[in-house]
Structure formats: C-alpha cells, structure tokens
Design brief:
alpha+beta; 17% helix
C-alpha cells in the first residue's frame, strides 16, 4: 500500500515552514499531525500509518498544527519558526565584497590603471593591457587554479597529479577537457579523489558543481535565467531553459535520507535550438555551456527532484519545478 509522503520547506522571507503531506487515501478521523517535544520533528498519522520528518528548522512554541477540514489527499500546513538574534555589538563593521568580474570593469571605473604599452594596446585590441575581458589566464607550474566547475593546471603538473606520488591521489575521467596553450582543464565531476593511498576512490555528482557555477553567475551577472546547452549547433540540438526562483531554501522530505538539505528552487523546461532561444531571451538570460555528460546529469537531477515534490507543486504553468542541491 502507498506510504505517506511528506515535504517540508523553509520560507526564510516570511520565517515559516510550509509542509505538504500526500496521503494514500482521503483524510478521515484517524488523520492527525503532531510535533515532537523539541519541536524539530513532525509526524503525520493516517489510518494505521505514520510518517516522521525532521523539519528544516525548529518550530516556535505555541504552534499547533491544524489540518484544513477541506483537505482530501494532501495536507498543507504553515508553521512559524524560532527566531534567531545577533547582538548589536557582535559585528562592528560591514563592507561590501568586490564583484568577481572587477577586472572586466576597470575600463569603466578604475582611475589608475596598470601601465600598458600603448602600441600593443591600440594594435591588438587590448590584448596587451594585462587585464580585462580580452585577457587570458596563464597556468604556472606548481599552481592549481580553482573554478566552481573545474581545475586549471599546467601541463607540467598533470603527470604528478594523476600519479601515485601525491599525498592526495587524483584520477581524471574520460570527459576531461583540454584548455590548450600549456593548460589543462579538469572538470570536477570527472575527477576521483582518495585522501590516502589505501582509501577508496570518491567521486562527486556534477549537479552540485553546476549549482555552484550558477550561484557565482547570479552574483556577478545579476540574472536569474540561464540557457544551458552543450555548445552544439546541430538542428536537433536541445538544452534547458532554467529559471532560478529561489537561490537558497532548506527542505526536508520523507523520500530523501539525511534531511534537511539546502538547495535552490528551480523552474526549468527542455528547449530546442538553445542558441536561438538565447538570442530571443536577450538580456533576460545568460548562457551556460556544459559538456554533454554534465548537461544530461543536470537534467536527470532536476527530474529526480521534481518527483520528490507533492504533485500539486511539480508544475508552474509550462515549467517543471525542481530542486538543485548546493
């Protein structure tokens, strides 16, 4: 018989937890909801079944869950959470962090630019400036450069990294992309790590790294919609149009072990001809190119998360709704 499924999501903007429970049959006199004594766990009772879930945050005292008498097979609740405080003397100074794309903006706002060769500047379209969007990052032997999605290494270091001499072993996968010009780009989801020589190899899913890249792009570019594709131009090429509805939610689910978890709430749809869609979106969307394997992994992760949500929350107009872990 179908079990009770419960999904809870923390709504930080209104300081409440929304709970949705899907029941195998209609509500009846046996249906009830209760909170644990510490108000961190919620239990749903129906017929001879019970489902317990750890809430994303503790619920305020005095909050008594009440079931809407109009409920049929889905129960919806709103519970206020415990408020936290920061002492006024704890933080003495607040400062804004610089944007990640500060170098690209130097032509517009920097008063004292680095010295440049005017001849190179005028004849090579700014390639000699040493800063800005036209500049490239050079790899240095012995130095690894980190991006949310990949590592950038010198060719001279690859044999050391992939060999058995390093204290931390590292092995690359088949889809590792070369960056050229003495550099090698290693996508993080194609890397296996072992803390010691005797440890088992560990590999992390690509959707978490893609999530980190999207968050970085939101911070630097100020957009919430992305055309995600593999860079192909074939007639049958497809991609994803992704709309980040909320960058930071905390949710719990009876279908997910180790709840609660942190994620982004995402609206998404499959699209044909991604490059044309990108042109149509204009300044409303940014572009995110992924290797084909990473694109399929992202689609799969979103589809799986969509099935975790209550049926009534799985769609918004013509968009599918998913959760992207970060």
């Amino acid at each position: 018989m179908v079990a009770i499924s419960v999904h809870a999501e923390l709504l930080l903007n209104i300081r409440q937890i929304t709970v949705q429970a899907s029941l195998p049959t209609d509500c009846n006199v046996t249906t009830s909801v209760s909170l644990s004594s510490e108000r961190s766990f919620l239990s749903v009772f129906h017929d001879d079944k019970v489902a317990e879930i750890r809430l994303p945050a503790a619920v305020r005292h005095g909050s008594v869950p009440k079931i809407d008498p109009k409920s049929v097979r889905e129960i919806s609740l709103r519970l206020p959470i415990v408020e936290g405080t920061v002492h006024k003397d704890s933080v003495r100074l607040w400062k804004d962090l610089p944007s990640e794309n500060w170098a690209e903006m130097m032509d517009f706002w920097h008063c004292h630019k680095p010295d440049t060769d005017d001849t190179i500047y005028h004849h090579q379209d700014g390639l000699g400036k040493g800063y800005g969007a036209a500049s490239t990052i050079e790899s240095i032997a012995g130095v690894g450069l980190l991006d949310p999605m990949y590592l950038l290494l010198s060719h001279d270091d690859v044999n050391v990294v992939t060999g058995q001499k390093a204290a931390t072993k590292l092995r690359t996968g088949r889809n590792t992309a070369g960056a050229g010009c003495g550099k090698i780009k290693l996508y993080k989801w194609e890397i296996r790590l072992a803390p010691t020589e005797s440890s088992a190899w560990q590999k992390h899913p690509g959707d978490k790294f893609v999530s980190a890249e999207i968050l970085a792009m939101i911070e630097s570019q100020g957009v919430q919609r992305f055309v995600v594709h593999d860079g192909g131009h074939a007639e049958d090429n497809t991609g994803l149009l992704v709309w980040i509805f909320n960058t930071n939610i905390i949710y719990s689910s009876t279908l997910v072990p180790e709840s609660p978890r942190r994620a982004m709430k995402v609206y998404y749809k499959t699209i044909a001809h991604p490059t044309k869609v990108l042109e149509q979106e204009g300044f409303k969307a940014d572009e995110l190119q992924l290797p084909d394997g990473a694109l399929r992994s992202l689609q799969s992760a979103l589809d799986v998360s969509n099935r975790l949500l209550p049926v009534s929350a799985q769609r918004f107009q013509d968009w599918s709704v998913g959760l992207l872990a970060h």
